[in-house]
Design brief:
Length: 156
């Protein structure tokens, strides 16, 4: 049984990790996540802080030191006209994805004059989709938020 559990843990890649850089939302320290991965032989991990990439450089440097594959991502607030706001999780597949992620988070802060929360439109995300993986589920995900209101059938 122990070997079975160990093999399952070794195949698990944590993709939703909110670090101390997710102000008031996360408390996980980057070195704690990396130490866990090393101890449990987890080959890769992601950090997906809320609306920022502040910890991505530190995360990548520390992962590389211990032979862990870093996955850079973020949990981004999205607004779609006529629907409830929600979040999407974006993960970089490559350098193009990283550039698009930087572009999106910059737009979230600079092009957003009507809200205190950094937010992008779904159209902006679609225009910057190359090199990115999008996960839209989760309790605050844009699909979940709109599914609850029976609005999801209207999204085209």
């Amino acid at each position: 049984m122990e070997n079975y559990l160990t093999s399952k843990i070794n195949r698990f890649i944590p993709l939703r990790n909110y670090t101390q850089y997710s102000l008031s939302k996360g408390a996980l320290k980057i070195n704690e996540l990396i130490d866990f991965c090393k101890k449990e032989n987890v080959p890769a991990a992601a950090i997906t802080d809320f609306n920022n990439l502040f910890g991505s450089l530190e995360f990548c440097i520390e992962c590389k030191k211990l032979g862990i594959q870093p996955i850079v991502g973020l949990n981004l607030s999205v607004r779609t006209k006529g629907f409830k706001d929600g979040n999407i999780l974006l993960l970089c597949k490559n350098e193009i994805g990283y550039r698009n992620l930087v572009n999106l988070v910059t737009k979230a802060y600079l092009d957003n004059s009507d809200s205190n929360t950094p937010v992008v439109s779904l159209h902006q995300v679609i225009n910057c989709k190359d090199g990115l993986i999008c996960l839209a589920g989760g309790i605050n995900g844009i699909i979940t938020k709109n599914f609850e209101e029976n609005l999801i059938c209207q999204i085209n």
